[in-house]
Amino acid sequence: MSATRENKEALRIPDSTKDIETNRVNEKVIQEENSTRIINDTYGDSFILGSASNGILGTSELGASARVETLVSVVNPNNTFRERFSDATFEDTGTTTADWADTVGTLVMTNTEVAQSLACVLNDGTIRKATISVEVSAGSITNLTFELSANADSDFESVTHNTEHAFTTTGVDLRFKITASDSVTITLVKITYE
């Protein structure tokens, strides 16, 4: 019977196990800072023990919650938003018809499907210009049309891929909309703005 590291210690047998060290040539690890979302939580009339207004027994149902989350701002490092479709945080589910992060790391679009974001920049100064670029793993960028809005989804303006766009209507709430004319799989949406 051979002894494992754990039972060697239990048996007080000297441990001769050594750490394995590997040498990897040209390994590159990339760490990327992403968007920061600042959310204000309002608890309404929820019962909070010790609270002067919400801690009075009998005035609200224990465990009841009228909690409201309000998105206050979204800021991005170096004025650059990146969506890698690892989750649906920025997906506008009321408008998007494409498969957003159904397969982690992809936005899968077919003919006439739309992908629209929620605020990817919010209250981080007035947005006057922006550039959108995407990376695809299948299909062609030429099968996509791009729109950006600097004032929520009130005024989407047509933009050209990888070309700076000066907004006709500026604002503080940047969103994107992509429409496909054929099958395309997107792995990255990157928007720089000022």
Which value, in Å, is the CA radius of gyration? 25 Å
> How many structural domains?
2
Task: Sketch the major β-sheet.
Answer: 9 strands, antiparallel
Q: What is the first-to-last residue Cα distance?
A: 67 Å
Please, could you describe this protein's structure?
The chain has 194 residues and is mainly β. It folds into 2 domains: 34-75, no CATH class; 76-193, Jelly Rolls, CATH 2.60.120. The protein has 1 helix and 11 strands, in the order αβββββββββββ. It has one helix spanning 5-11, and strands at residues 36-42, 68-75, 80-83, 99-100, 107-109, 114-116, 121-138, 144-149, 157-159, 165-180, 184-193. The strands form 2 sheets. Strands 3, 4, 5, 6, 7, 8, 9, 10 and 11 form a 9-stranded antiparallel beta sheet that branches. The chain has a two-stranded antiparallel sheet with strand order 1-2. The longest helix has 7 residues, at 5-11. The radius of gyration is 25 Å and the shape is globular.
